[in-house]
Amino acid sequence: MKINYEKFLRCAFSYIRDNGYVKGDTAQEILKIMDNYNSKMGASDADLDVFTEWVNNQPTSDYMTSVKLIDTTGRTTNEIDTRYLNIPCSAINLYLKKMREEEERKNSTSTFIGNIKDKITVEIKDIRKLFTNNFGYDIYRVLGTDDNVYVISTTIYTLKHGDIITGTIKGHKEYKGEKQTVLNRIKKLTIDDDEITEMLQRIANDN
Length: 207
Hints:
This protein has 207 residues and is an alpha+beta fold.
């Protein structure tokens, strides 16, 4: 079945911006709200144009080739087959994520904290997982309540807004102009019973 591509894209922007993206589920949820679509709810023409420009400027890969093909075809015919809805949804999610990251760095007032080997305490105001490295460590970008940015690594803890952690300063670095303090030897000070059980399970699985 084919549906109106522009209408779907506008709804997708609005839905993913407000609710995030879950593979498979998101496209179906957007289909449900399309009948009640109001043009004021969705993306503007400028949003769609900037998104298309961003897509066209991405490095070549099998994934981006699929995204470009679907976007070009959809823009030309104003149709998209419902079998392929996950592809533009995931691309919009990626685009919005990159735009948020750029905005965070642009507005950042972060400064370097402390000296190498200092032990410090940080209360998490915002947190985003960056990646998992080859050694199994989850790497996070943390914004502290002091409005400074920290990069931390852990294999044990699941971290969230409001958590309080301690760590040892490993170094300082700049990423695209944003000053970041790198911490290791992370310890979480706010742990409930469920999290203790989860931590023990993760340690057991690693061993």
